[in-house]
Write a structure and sequence with these properties.
Layout: H1 8-14, E1 26-30, E2 33-36, E3 41-44, H2 47-50, H3 59-69, H4 82-94, E4 99-103, H5 106-124, E5 131-135, H6 144-149, E6 166-169, H7 174-180, E7 185-190, E8 193-194, E9 200-201, H8 204-217, E10 220-224, H9 239-242, E11 248-251, E12 262-266, H10 268-271, H11 287-300, H12 303-327, E13 330-336, E14 339-344, H13 352-361, E15 364-365, E16 367-368, E17 373-376, H14 384-404
Parallel strand pairs: 3-15, 5-6, 5-7, 7-10, 10-11
Antiparallel strand pairs: 1-2, 2-3, 4-12, 8-9, 11-12, 13-14, 14-17, 16-17
């Protein structure tokens, strides 16, 4: 059957309405420059929501995918393969991990981490050691377990009854954790920097305190680094900048540079909790995904590349601060590497989505993190020209927005 060129109306006609996508349809991109069906150009500061760490159509990633596609696509978890073993070795050599498990997304990674924590507690302590401590405004995924653990009730309230024994506490409030944690706590799960929650970094004191409390109560400390991992903060993983090592770390998003892959990193002590048959995934660790992830890590996991991410952060923030001095729309600009959030002032509270929509009209793609934060997660290798062009368009969009009020 001959297919016609799809339009945005086709989304409304054929797709389950879980999303409300932009009115334009992207059709091609290179680096951080994207084009829609009408040939309009956009500078992409979204990066697939922190996924396209090396931009669009990266030559090294494309070559790895094509090369692997000529060899082996999928065998299932009854077999292993060369790309997954190379990827696992890279992680063990570059992080705290002794063992890894690969899946397909951040939600699956967090699901595995939480299941590991409960099973470890049952095996080594008691069936009553099931409580999980999580934090308000956190985001850990959309499975029933992870959406329940996430601290945003709007995402979970319509799916009750939810998994139990989950306590949500204020982020960066160590006193609250001290009061809530007990020997029945099996895990504490935390984002080193809350992404969806507004680009809010944890303090070093908070993470160090969580580490000490988990050690005291034999609880598993889980770092959700789905958004902060694979170079996003200017470090391979954010835990390395804090000097606090988790027991389990979840990773996804940027790992495949656009090809779906996720995973957890852990130590031998905790890896034994997930024994043969206790957990699994059909597609996780498939050769195609792991070949691309290997190519991505080989580029990102270098001192020079990560230093360049931090340098780009400084440039990005300097320009944003200059824009804000002229326009006065942001109460605060928060950042960790190229994970950046601009908190709107009271005058513009609740208007992040409207501003982001107008940005697209001006040829720059931006994100939001809740109703009050404009978020940027551009490619880590964005060019200086694309950065400057995108921020110039962003300023024009803000000026336009102010003129319409």
């Amino acid at each position: 059957m001959k297919q016609s060129i799809p339009s945005r109306n086709d989304f409304d006609q054929y797709m389950i309405p879980m999303y409300s996508p932009a009115p334009f349809i992207p059709v091609k991109a290179q680096g951080s420059t994207l084009y829609d069906q009408n040939g309009k150009e956009y500078i992409d500061f979204v990066g697939g929501i922190a996924v396209n760490a090396l931009g669009h159509a990266n030559p090294a990633l494309r070559e790895a995918l094509i090369e692997q596609s000529d060899k082996l696509w999928h065998t299932g978890n009854g077999y292993t393969n060369e790309p997954v073993l190379n990827l696992a070795k890279h992680f063990v050599e570059s992080t705290f991990a002794d063992k890894v498990f690969f899946c397909n997304s951040g939600a699956e990674a967090n699901e595995a981490a939480l299941k590991l924590a409960r099973r470890y507690a049952r095996q080594h302590f008691s069936a009553e050691k099931t409580e999980i401590i999580a934090f308000n405004n956190a985001f850990h995924g959309r499975t029933l377990f992870t959406v329940s653990t996430g601290g945003q009730p709007n995402y979970s309230k319509d799916f009750a009854p939810l998994p139990g024994a989950i306590t949500h506490l204020p982020f960066n409030d160590l006193t609250a954790v001290e009061a809530a944690i007990s020997d029945n706590t099996c895990a504490v799960i935390v984002e080193p920097i809350q992404g969806e929650g507004g680009v809010v970094p944890a303090t070093a004191e908070f993470l160090r305190g969580l580490r000490a409390l988990c050690d005291k109560h034999n609880a598993v400390l889980i770092f959700d680094e789905v958004q902060t991992g694979v170079g996003r903060t200017g470090y391979l993983y954010a835990y390395q900048s804090y000097g606090v090592t988790p027991d389990v770390l979840s990773t996804a998003k940027a790992l495949g540079g656009g090809f779906p892959i996720g995973g957890i990193l852990t130590t031998d002590k905790f890896a034994s909790a997930l024994s043969i048959g206790s957990h699994g995934t059909t597609y996780g660790g498939n050769p195609l995904a792991c070949a691309v992830a290997n190519a991505s890590l080989n580029i990102i996991d270098s001192k020079e590349f990560l230093a360049n991410v931090r340098a780009k952060q400084a440039t990005f923030i300097e320009v944003l601060e200059n824009i804000n001095r002229r326009l006065g729309m942001f109460a605060e600009i928060r950042s960790a590497g190229l994970l950046i959030g601009c908190q709107l002032t009271e005058e513009y509270a609740g208007q992040a989505k409207a501003i982001s929509t107008l940005c697209a009209e001006h040829g720059v793609m931006t994100l939001i993190a809740g109703p009050n934060v404009i978020r940027f997660t551009p490619a880590l290798n964005i060019s200086q020209q694309e950065l400057e062009t995108g921020l110039a368009r962003f300023e024009q969009a803000l000026k336009d927005y102010q003129s319409r009020k």
